[in-house]
Specification:
The chain has about 70 residues and is mainly alpha-helical. It contains 2 helices and 2 strands, in the order ααββ. It has a two-stranded antiparallel ribbon.
Length: about 70
């Protein structure tokens, strides 16, 4: 989605994984679900970071979150 300049990277990753365009609210819900899934596996909420190479990692534990998407 190119319309949202404030959270473009977050939209791009979420939409790529969902396979269709999403609203800002849907994008927030998507990342909240990813965060809850990470907490269930590791016991802490993820500090999600999208690296320049496209990998999505948790800054707290360094775990690659791409596997959960």
């Amino acid at each position: 989605m190119r319309a949202c300049t404030r959270c473009e990277a977050w939209h791009t990753e979420a939409e790529k994984n969902k396979g269709h365009y999403l609203s800002c609210t849907q994008v927030k819900e998507y990342w909240a679900e990813v965060n809850r899934h990470h907490k269930g596996e590791t016991g802490h909420y993820a500090q999600i970071h999208i690296r320049k190479d496209g990998r999505i990692i948790c800054l707290k534990c360094g775990q690659d979150i791409n596997d959960h998407l």
